[in-house]
Write a structure and sequence with these properties.
The chain starts with a helix and ends with a helix. It has nine helices and no strands. It has two domains: 80 residues, Orthogonal Bundle (Rna Polymerase Sigma Factor, Chain: A); 81 residues, Arc Repressor Mutant, subunit A, CATH 1.10.10. With 171 residues, the chain is mainly α. The chain is elongated.
Length: 171
């Protein structure tokens, strides 16, 4: 019985994969998460025990995707909101997980951080780089990016949250 379910999910996912990734891509701040979330939808569909009870498979697929988007947004708010962006320890928070520091050399961490930063939206990435690489104040960054200081703080919180999650997953 597991094989027909898996075949059903594979067929459904193959038919809708591109549209599903586009669905996520249009709704996410971090565009690189679209493929990961689409894969998570696939995994959740594999856990469904009664695929015969699904009357409209495409609608069900997008219902799962919509719920996953909500979970992702909640997680982003939670992780981004808990980061202190005004202290001296903020730069340390960006560095990666403490466990990986012993294993990874500094050059590898810097290379990974560059990849992670490229995943951010341009202004968000610029705010993080200007703050922690060039040590500009929030006010100076706001002037350079032509946004409010509130927006700079939001960019920094989102950027640090993204970097912490990605660096941890790469380590």
């Amino acid at each position: 019985m597991a094989e027909p379910r898996q075949a059903f999910v594979e067929r459904l996912f193959a038919r809708h994969r591109d549209a599903l990734q586009s669905f996520f891509y249009r709704r996410l701040r971090t565009k690189s998460d679209a493929a990961d979330l689409a894969q998570e939808v696939y995994l959740r569909l594999l856990r469904v025990t009664d695929t015969d009870g699904i009357r409209n498979p495409a609608a069900y697929l997008y219902a799962v995707a919509g719920n996953l988007l909500k979970e992702n947004a909640t997680k982003d708010r939670h992780h981004g909101g808990g980061i202190e962006i005004e202290g001296d320890d903020a730069a340390q928070q960006l560095g990666g997980s403490p466990d990986g520091d012993d294993v990874l050399d500094a050059g590898l961490r810097v290379d990974r951080l560059r990849v992670v930063l490229k995943q951010l939206p341009p202004k968000c990435c610029a705010a993080v780089v200007l703050r922690y690489r060039y040590e500009l104040s929030v006010q100076e960054i706001a002037e350079r990016l032509q946004v409010s200081t509130h927006m700079v703080k939001k960019y920094l919180g989102q950027g640090l949250g993204h970097c912490r999650r990605r660096m941890a997953s790469l380590g």
